[in-house]
Amino acid sequence: MLTRPAGSRLLPQALDDHAASTPQRLYASIAREADLSKGFQDVTCEDMARCVHFMAQWIKNNIGISEKFETLSYIGIPDLRGAVLFLAAVKAGYKTLLPSPRNPPATNISLMQQTACSKVLYAAEVAPVIQQIENADNSITCVAVPSFKEMIESNPEAYPFDKEFEDVKNDPILILHSSGSTGLPKPITMTHATFAVLDNERNLPKTPGRRNRDYSIWDFNGGGRFYTVFPYFHLAGFLSVTVNPIFTEASSPVFGPPQVPPSGTLLKDVFRYQDLRALYLPPSIAEQLILEPGGIEYFKNLDFLCYTGGPFSPVAGEQLSKVTELCPLYGCTEAFQVPQLAPSAEDWAWMEWSPHFKLEMEPSEDEKGTFELILFADKSTEKISALNHNLPGTPVYRTKDLFKQHPQKPGLWQYYGRRDDIIVLSNGEKFNPVPMELLIQSHPSVAGALITGTGRSQAALLIEPKQDLSPEERANLKERLWPLIEKANVLAPGQGRITNSKFLLCSSSKPFVRAGKGTVVRKLTERVYETEIRDLYAKSSQSPTQRLVMLESTLKPVFEVASISRFIRSAIADTFPTIDQLSDEDDLFVHGLDSVQLAEVINRLKTSLEQNPGVGDMSWLNTRVLYNHSTVGSLSKTLFQFLNFGSVPTGEAISPRVERMDAMVKRYTQGLVPAHRPSKTSTGPSSVALIGSTGYLGPWTLASLLDNPDIASIYCLNRSADASERTAAALKKFGIYTEASFAKVKFLECDLSQPHFGLSDASFDVLSSFADVIIYNAWNPNFSSTLPSFEKPFLQGLRNIIDWSATSPKLPHIIFISSIAAIGDYSKLHPSSPIAPETPLQSYDVAMQMGYGESKNVAEHILSAAHKTCGMPVSSLRIGQIGGCMEPGNLGAGWPVQAWLLGVIKTSQALGALPKGVTAVDWMPVDALGNIISRIAGREAAAGGVRVFNLVHPDAKPFSVFIDALKADGRVEDLPEIPLSQWLKKLDEVRGSRDKEQLARYPATRFYNFLKSLGDGKEDMRFVVENVKEVVPEGLGEITKELVGIWLREWEF
């Protein structure tokens, strides 16, 4: 019987009520020892309340009472102390942070810093974990708590919690962290009202003829036990061990041995010694038991089996659905479980949302046929949605979780994966690796499978073997696993398929990083294996099943075409078995050679050829050659000419432009030496060196850095002596200058071309000692200059920056302000997949045909080489056209004249026509751009590696938005619009004149080469912008005709 109404109860109070009214009500049952035959200890509500009274008094005596809901952290093992500590801390006035002991120390320290936590309670069993935290941050006080035996055997006085729900419902009491599936976990603070939502779910309206599937399923009539393996620091585990025993009528969790990993074998033993009514666990554990003889019999007496953390395999699910009810649950830390209606038994794998819950399934652009779940919160959802309380003020929450709809039954949904799981290959093709990973890791020898490849040309597979494999089993695992990989490949698009050479068997000493619920944390695991992944893609791969093929030796002075033909067939047969069925004149692409196999074919040919004595440089053998010589006969003749006469196919040799760029890269990467790694990563506010604080972007970047609480000091390095005055004047003009904030900026005059930038030893020593981040924002924005003109001082300066970072004790993160011109010709070279990737450069050819773009491309190559040798974190920010401001308060700042755009306007007036489709209006607002740079400076160094950001507006508009803004302004006639190529022809007719008056009428003449490089226009040029979305999760406002009109107000034309 409830002593207070459901939906308005407080957890510590409700436990005390149970202890008083039904003291023998079962709270939980815990294994006495690892050997379950030794029995279980039943813990009653009276026992549990006593433990809580004891620990509340213990906290008061050892830590003190909190009047301000300070954060108190607890790290322990999966026993009842997690629940006890939480309930006791609430009584003592604290909110409790429950980080995972499996997290790296840096992650848990980050969580503590984010939640202002300086006190950690811990179980003695995790002392080594605590030692690592103390070693990393000596400002954190760590105190061991008593054993559960001491708690339950105590005899304390009652520690009351006499509060009224309405008075304290918004008080913070718990902090769990997000799973961290996409990176560092984020803390989510919860209140009493958060858990009242669950208590209130039994009050949700019923749908006629249907059964609710919500938190009320745990109301076991007459009580009952359920077994769960989720730990107390994971949402599912916390609810199971803390909320279920108190708020339900009445479900009691069964605990296995806390130090024994959950498995099918352990589940079988629990079944033997406990009378279970339900299970709540990941599917993999139940599937392990099903594989045993008679394993399915154990599930027959269950009321239901709830699962999360992944789907059941179709075979296992079908078996289980015949003997018990399967309940796939969906929820997230931010919003908790989404209430459902129970579907028919045949639809066991599908979910149907409650019609009384506010949500929307929005078609996703990430993958066709998928939908993102969007949740809504307002006044009407306060009692039924945890979102109202966990993320107050968030009316719309994009879960980033994707679902597929039942093909015949609209309204039934199946979880598909995270938007963050989606891999975007370098050609823009997207696919979800999760179905492949789940299939592969169903192999009994595999602990985990992870597919990577974002920004790469093809996918790669990382396999985490089970720890108990013998050396022989580990050695032949790839061979045993390959048939399953081939089955998984059927689920993927062409470039998502796994090939022999893109397979990595991971070390047992470097286990995959996992979230509390046991799922692999993709980005953190990729970070752990960053070097191995890079090497996997970089090397000329030779899998154990592949063999080197040698050219047939001959006494003749030349290689014969016939022998070369046999060599080609033999070399690529492993990759493209269809070759055996084709004649020398059959087109390989017509007969199924795809882009993944193409890459493998080139790799195999190069590797095999290079093993033959006397074979020269094979760098010319690339995809372009194979496309042009796509039959065995044609390719044989091409190799014949090369092997016998050294001739490379016409038009496919390295271009002079590429040679110049490559020579420049080699010049500025000579003599790089590995850097000493910093002994300790800085965890406090960082110091930033901003090279180039003047101009247009510089002041906005500085303003955002000043506004960033994670940045303590800023050093501005400029070539001009009056940079301080110019920068301050710009900030005042923008209305964002304050003397107080400007006080943490120090200006230094420098010469980029000189060692140590021409600074005094004292000044440079300060920079070297304190700077955590270097932002390089100094470049000549001259589209008419040639590549050599950017060498001094800009490329010289870049090398000096690299040397600075490499010799600094902090190995500072280099942020380079690059340009989309560095990849401006990508779509021209990749017409079938024109979306420019957000990855480190692999080619010089993709640079726009002008010195500016070439110089930025060269600089990015230099930085990638520097990272590879020296190890400093590098971020290249490819910036496109910078627009005016987006934020309403900044709109008065104005938009400096963009010379090439003004040149187009004035020239159009003189020519009597406007060009159309010149470029996409993906112009990044300058205030947003400054904020993005500041955020990257504040957070990306920890990510390490080489990061690339295509900083263009994710919601690109056609060039007509700019034209329409011009016409709406009234200062430009309603001129006809013609293709850019025709417009340039009209300009050609007048641009030969040297008359100054003529040049003034046609100022676009100055930018003729740049405009010519755009061909018929770059309006369809698109960029991958996933990293931008990661840095700006809140999104950017839309670029409208009206906004562009505001930007143009101060221009004179």
From TrEMBL:
Keywords: Phosphopantetheine, Phosphoprotein
Protein origin, superkingdom: Eukaryota
Every Thioester reductase (TE) domain range: 691-932
Lineage: Eukaryota, Fungi, Dikarya, Ascomycota, Pezizomycotina
Domain AMP-dependent synthetase/ligase: 31-336
Record-linked InterPro entries: ACP-like_sf, Adenylate-forming_Reductase, AMP-binding_CS, AMP-dep_synth/lig_dom, ANL_N_sf, FAR_NAD-bd, NAD(P)-bd_dom_sf
Pfam families the UniProt entry points to: AMP-binding, AMP-binding_C_3, NAD_binding_4
PANTHER family on file: ENZYME, PUTATIVE (JCVI)-RELATED, PHENYLACETATE-COENZYME A LIGASE
Name this protein carries in UniProt: Acetyl-CoA synthetase-like protein
Key word Nuclease present: no
